[in-house]
């Protein structure tokens, strides 16, 4: 499982020397699509040979730390914790640090170790608390945001769970601890208990759902101009689809599905098609249109892609778009419009009557498992109170192997403001990115003057 927010990675179309040289996917049309770092379908992906993380993504509790374990507020002058009876208070705008002794040797815990910071708190504030960790992924900003919690203002006692994996944990110097930072944006955070615990099987789904929820709450302040929805074109459906409430439609990934998108007749109910090499990632876009009524609890799954012997020849990862309110693109003069800014592992979603929703499919072939041929599987779409709808997915795998950047003698990558956690590097590597340019101001070594001698500390870069 991977559980991170605000570490968004743009959706990458793989780059091959023998293929058209695209970098970030369709930069002109989908430049703000991003992929949350959370593996889809939990055990399905983790148990699959298609996942490059299969050997490393089974996170485990730290071997040298007995959980649950205590973690304490830092009461020095650099923090804002105030003792309050049996608990603690943290005013808005004041960082509150938590630390526990490091249980590992070196700079980071063993690869694959993970744990969860639990915080028992009173939710009587209106903005979520930002939880970060000392990650050692930059000298300018050594803390990385992990999660946000609370902000409902309902006056209830709650428990926040903030998961973290070893590639985000860095030994804090000079205290030799694991160190978290909580920052309330409004009100006062009142806490009765902190502790470190083991992750649960449902950690990923819970984390993803909580993240979508706080983003939606934060965005309630923005109002979409009515003129945006007035640009919706009339829906003209083929006769055999005109009375169906759930209408799937195929659309090229170069033209993103927006809430105001309507399916032309030549896209409705048509098979999705993809042609790819033996070692490739290829995106496909599916639109879901609500015809004549709201759709609730829409779920999209894809059957296995198998040959006549029953062997898997390709894998399909299903992602669902989260529409966020962003600066106007369709009509630049409008302040905001809903735009598919994050692609989450498949989850149940709703579609208002007359609107559409994007589903993003990533088809993956691997040379050691795939073979050339034509293969057909089914995309299954379900919604509450509506019969299942099936759409064929036709995949042609050609007997071609695409070159990697190294094989072509090329380098390809992007510019980074700071260092990256290991799981992001793994994803970039899978998509054939083999280099990166790091900005000096975010990764520069610490400088110190020791009795006239200039010392450069490369601890972060060495890690």
Structure description:
This protein has 8 helices and 27 strands. The chain is mainly beta and 463 residues long. Strands 13, 15, 17, 18, 19 and 21 form a 6-stranded antiparallel sheet that branches. Strands 3-6-11-8-9 form a 5-stranded antiparallel sheet. Strands 4-5-12-7-10 form a 5-stranded antiparallel sheet, with no helix packed on it. The N terminus is likely disordered. The protein folds into 3 domains: 225 residues, Immunoglobulins (Immunoglobulin-like); 127 residues, Jelly Rolls (Sandwich); 50 residues, no CATH class.
Domain count: 3
CATH superfamily of the largest domain: Immunoglobulins
Derived structural class:
mainly beta
Oligomer: single chain
Determine Rg (CA atoms, Å): 24 Å
CATH C-level class of the largest domain: Mainly Beta
What distance lies between the first and last C-alpha atoms, to the nearest angstrom?
23 Å
Low-confidence stretches: 1-57
Specify the CATH architecture of the largest domain. Sandwich
Largest sheet descriptor:
6 strands, antiparallel
The number of distinct helices, counting runs of at least 4 residues, comes to 8
The amount of helix comes to 10-25%
Shape: globular
CATH topology heading of the largest domain: Immunoglobulin-like
β-strand amount: 35-45%
Number of strands: 27
Average pLDDT works out at: 84
